[in-house]
Amino acid sequence: MKLSRTACAALLAGAAIVLTGAATAPTTFDDDETALIVSHGPWPVKTDADPSNRVSGKPAAIAYGKTLFESNDLSVDRQRSCATCHQADLAFADGIMRGIGLTRVDRNTPALFNMRLNRWFGRDGKSDSLWAQSIAPILDARELGMTPTTLKTRLATTQTLSDGYRQIFGAAPAAHEAETVMVNVAKSLAAFQETIVSGKSSFDMFRDGLAAEDPAGIAGYPEAARRGLKLFVGKGRCDLCHFGANFTNGEFHDIGLPHFPEPGRVDKGRYGGIQQLRKSRFNLLGPFNDDKLRATAGFTRHVRLTPKNWGEFRVPSLRNAARTAPYMHDGSKATLEDVVDHYSEIPEDRPHQDGEKLLRPLNLTDAEKADLVAFLKTL
Amino acid sequence: MRRLLPGPVLCAALLTAGPALADHCPWDTLVALPGQLNDGGTAVAYKTNPARIEVGKPFSIEVVACIDDEKHMAPSRIRVDAGMPMHGHGMNYQPSERKIGPGHSSFDGMVFHMPGHWQIMFDVYEGDKRQRLNQKISVKR
Ligand SMILES: [Cu+2]
Question: Does B95 touch chain A (CB under 8 A)?
């Protein structure tokens, strides 16, 4: 049978429509994918005051904590503060590879959003509360370089800091033990940091629209981000670790990055974190927990130290990822493109792979990589 | 030459080393629990609290074990652990035991920190002899 010329043209045109149609058809999600996507919300997550910190959520402590956070009086040389490394206009990070205080530290400064959702603090989880984590930089000789005694003297001799302290803790710093002053300072710092929460992202709008089956709600979400999202919950298997509303399981994994801050010196990661946690007087099992029931101390009580903890680091939240470069515990990935390259080409014969059999090279195409990055930028 | 042990030491040694009187396991409690495993006459039953294990959230597990499902003998010890065989890792937390009675304990502090296929291992001891019963559990995001 011979096709007429017009029939032939019509067929070709039809094929062309189908072809271009396929290229631009909006990405859709089946029921399983939809459920996975919806499980990354709703946002924000409601949180309560921290029972281990009696000034958590108290307006006076929040205001005082902000003053402390920005005060150079918390450093031995009066030249730097928490805000030197955690800068409000840089997502409470510093934008450089590794933080610089009195000298350079081994790790990249993390952003400080949504801290109330953390179970562990520090990239190695050496602290089990936000206030305990806030003590560390004050005492670290590379960061603010104080001691409990110098801190107490600073507070006692700085009128504004001394007044604020008395107002919240009922006595002048001079009347308290140096260690008590330090813990109270840390608890005020924590009260302030708990108020740093991030708002709804364009992903959240899309997620809410999907949950509500509202076509208008999902309309504005870019096509590339949709394809990237499909990869994230699909063949990328990213949400095995980066799951839930905060895009993290709050735990520790080894994703095959080197862990040598300099040749010959190793960053023990989670292994060192658990060791430090256990010997700290400031953990939730210790005398400074304000919750006599120790209701939130279960993770500390049960945490297990095993060789696989070597070189593990905490799974970071991916919220605000576009604003928190550089990435990873050592700041070794400059861009999100670099991060995605890492997951795509992750070496299978890396030395520490006994732990995680689940990471294997994804071998993504350039287009897929760009989609994944486009998605990450909507968080 | 033989040396005589002092009386109290001898007593203590006899008490700890002598064959322990075998206890009965609480069979009625065992059959009432929702999770049931049996391997060659060794029976284990368990109940998690909360009933549905949520990824990343701590839970506890109540366990009853009988080393002989006819004579209803309690094991000398029960241990519980879990892992993800396909990922090659265990739990990040070490469960702690609260003894309720012979062959009956509750373990606190369990956390499944990733979605996917988990396996709970129940180790039932009769002296040094260990028998392991496994339960597969799948956890969603
Ligand atoms: Cu796993």
Answer: yes
Q: Residue B127: which CATH number?
A: 2.60.40.1930
Over residues A87-132, the pLDDT tens digits come to 999 999 999 999 999 999 999 999 999 999 999 999 999 999 999 9
- The CA distance from A21 to A17, in Å, is 6
Q: Is residue B129 part of a domain?
A: yes
The answer to whether residue B3 is domain-embedded is no
Subunit contact B95:A303, Cβ cutoff 8 A: no
Residue B98 lies in a domain: yes
pTM for the full predicted model: 0.90
pLDDT digits (tens, 9 = 90+) for A147-203: 999 999 999 999 999 999 999 999 999 999 999 999 999 999 999 999 999 999 999
Task: Select from 1.10.760.10, 3.40.50.150, 1.20.120.1200, 1.10.10.10 the CATH code of A59-193.
Answer: 1.10.760.10
Contact B141 A239 (CB under 8 A): yes
Distance B109 CA to ligand 1 centre (A): 18
* A144 contacts A151 by C-beta, under 8 angstroms: no
Q: Which residues of A69-93 are buried (b: 16+ CB within 10 A; e: fewer)?
A: bebebbbbeeebbbbbbbeeebbbb
Confidence of residue B68 (pLDDT cuts 50, 70, 90): confident
Instruction: Tokens for A154, please give them.
Output: 């600073």
CA distance B79 to chain A (A): 15
How many Cβ atoms from other residues are within 10 Å of residue A26's Cβ?
A: 9
- For chain B, how many structural domains are there in total? 1
Residue B19 C-alpha, separation from nearest chain A C-alpha, in angstroms = 33
Residue with tokens 């409990």: A148
Q: How many angstroms separate the CA of residue B139 from the nearest CA in chain A? A: 11
Residues flanking ion ligand 1, Cβ below 5 Å: B 84, 87, 114
Partner-chain contact B55 A252, CB within 8 Å: no
Structural domain of B63: 22-139
Burial of B126 (0-12, 13-18, 19+ CB in 10 A): middle
